[in-house]
Model the fold of this input.
Amino acid sequence: MNRKVHSKEIHEAVLARLNERGVRLEEIAEIVYVMQRPYHPHLTHAACLDSVKAVLGKRELLHALLVGIELDMLAEKGMLSEPLQSLVEADEGLFGCDETLSLGAVLGYGSIAVTTFGHLDKHKVGVILRLDTKQGDGVHTFLDDLVAAVAASASSRIAHKSRDWQESEEEQAGESETGESGGAAG
Ligand code: MG
Done:
């Protein structure tokens, strides 16, 4: 029988997996801060963390995280079949499926998410660098890209939200000016 999985269960599973794999949401928020601070001088770490939490409400991103982290964990246990086991375990540079899974997951957040993902993939900011350097026994072939996908989506969300706030402030300022000058023209 097919079981209908509630999105709350998926969300909780992803948060638990990230925690198990040693990634804190604050670390992802720090990447968002580094990416967006130059464009928004008043940006706070709290706003970045809120944005990370918000994008972790999106199913496509959650599903990508579930799939990728599962493959990392199976590779760690040597449970994939060959040659996939060796490709994932070695984080083979030309494998490419880790990047494409993550890139696909950011598309819902538009071009800023795509270009930010590309930047993070190349420059390995913050926790992404720690995951990519393959220190210790862990396999993080998918996780480094997935963390970049979450950070890129949250960065794009801030870019768009910030413009929305700016525009609504301008509209309000415009309305109060009209009010002061004696109301709407008849
Ligand atoms: Mg990778």
Summary: The chain has one domain: 7-162. Confidence is low (pLDDT under 50) at residues 181-186.
